[in-house]
Fold these 2 entries.
Entry 1:
Amino acid sequence: MTASAPARLAVIGAGAWGTALALASGRARTAPTTTIWAHEPDVAQAINRERTNPTFLPGVLLPAGLNATTELAEAARDAAIVLLAVPAQHLRAVSQRLTPHLAPNAILVLCAKGIEVGTGKLMSEILVETAPGAALAVLSGPTFAAEVAAGKPTAVTLACADAERGRGLAAALGSSALRPYLSDDVVGAQIGGAVKNVIAIACGIVEGRRLGDNARAALMTRGLAEIMRLGTALGGKRETLMGLSGLGDLALTCNGVQSRNMSLGIALGRGKPLGEILAGRRSIAEGVATAAAVHALAQKRGVDMPIVGAVDAIVHHGADITRTIAAVLERPFRSEA
């Protein structure tokens, strides 16, 4: 794929983010033909008949040229670019079903943010196992789906080990509204996007407990330190983690009530049980599952991540929020570096 060639594009996953990406692709400078795969038949039907996705992205009119399907084979057929926007914990199963239908030389672009529970594997490592030999890239950064869908200015990291392939993807996906910045750091781009969801839950708890802006700013800063410790331990670059897919995504997710993870943390901080919060949602807050995966990975790698550990204790082990906050605050004083 050259930097100027249009390509047929498939979006796998019709949640808010997948739908926004499908809509944004129509604004790209090369305007690829786009098909979106939906797990839910009612979502595919609404997109095709009503040009809307009221379940996951209400109030947004979708273009007539966008076709939705519930068949992975149909979505993937002849697609040169495949955007994987399914929830992180479902990527393995979807990829296993998708791989036999991929076109030769199709490029897989990871758009999910998370780490697999049980294995501690990055999304790229899952693809290496389930789609061996496939070219891959990572698209990550500060992106609220509703704003991307509305065409508001957004910048993202597009990480790809092959520079020429990265330039081709940027041409196929980028527009004046969605600006991709190229990187070769596939690992760093994933770590920033995954761990910030866990830190956002913590920031939400602070907000729900009315602990103040000072506490939230401190939590974000120390959360970034945890992201950088894990990211560099896994081979990511510090400059990536200080960029759009690290600091940028963290700043957005920890400051906006649009964030599913922060809003979940706020509800937890106000005393609402996790099960009740999750029961009232169809969209997924990736940070819940990722908290357990990151905590286990950090322990395995010997990386100190007390904020992640605290969130994992609260959401997965029933830890008392007040006592958990106190335990974090009572940690020994140490050098900031």
Entry 2:
Amino acid sequence: MLIGEIMLEGLFVLFAYLAGSVSSAIIVCRMMGLPDPREQGSGNPGATNVMRIGGKKAAGITLLGDMLKGLLPVYLAKILGMPVDALALIGLAAFLGHLYPVFFGFKGGKGVATSVGVLLGFAWLLGFAIIATWLLIYKISKISSLSALIASSLSSVYAWYIVESPGLVGSCVLMTVLLLWRHKSNIQRLLAGEES
């Protein structure tokens, strides 16, 4: 029984990574006849860049797709009663799939929307806390990357109080570190006062 549970959890981690590897930005742009987001704008296959090259509708669909691929694997694992540590690994796998997608040469997006989906899967309150923080900072600053960086940086603090699970908090910390790393160019522009 224990071996069966471990195998199921391993399959879910693989499923989460593969789900995360499906690039919503690239698929939406192809379906809507838009340029490849990896070759236009910032070159990042994410909702913000899709907004630049295709408008709000394309960006909204991309955002939803990126969130769902983080949410669904974690939520399905939860329904099946998998332990919290497995949920942490499954969420991290979906996030890594978005950053390093096997289907697109391991060159993916920055992970903001997918991480929000994962956090919603961990706990609805945690996900909504991140979304509320992003909206508040964006309302004040009007800078998407700054909002994402601050919201992500606070995710581990929120998780500590909301989910009270070392495994889930650890997953949040790792996602934050990777997200900050992926935003290093944005951070440099923010520090130089050049971020749009």
